[in-house]
Design goal:
alpha+beta, 4 helices, 15% helix, 25% strand
Amino acid sequence: MSDYPLGFRFYPTEEELLSFYLHNKLENTRQDIERLIPVTDVYCCDPSLLPSMSGAASVRDQEQWFFFCPRQERESQGGRPTRTTPSGYWKATGSPSYVYSTSNRVIGVKRTMVFYEGRAPTGSKTVWKMNEYKALQEGDLGVPNAPPRLRNEFSLCRVYVKTATLRSFDRRPLNPANIGNPTPLEQPFSRDSSPSGDDAGFQVPATGGAADWNVLNEFDMDFS
């Protein structure tokens, strides 16, 4: 059960998801972060079971839930991850894209998936969707002309139900002085009761040469 009062919603921006939550998980610098976003292999479970497994940040939410997903053993051995659950499978939609900070700096990559019931390729599309985020190697971000590399130990997954409402994932009351710097764990909570939309916060990446696309191709190969 969440310790937060009724009316609070967890509305982190994509920049906060990558630069604060996923960064601290990868660096193991905040032991309390799993209270909000637990470690769960989302690809082993049907999405209908995931809401009850979510952390304090979203366990009472009706539309979106957040998880740290560990790298599968077959990935660490050079294989491709499996995204088949007991009742269906996750299928990538579109191509992966970069996620940018408010200062227009690439901080990670994002992939959107849809859950299908049944077995590929004849499964039935459902309302369940997911954004999977991976961070870039921290040292690469400040090195000129260095090709970016993915951090694969954990990804951050936002599982959500597609609705017909306006996109509102990145819409919340903002304090301009604190954008992108959510030092207290509770800062991304707001009393905005707007329901989550579909793929809000999506940003089309600007092409910048072959080196820039290597990391996207690496992410894309997981879904080939």
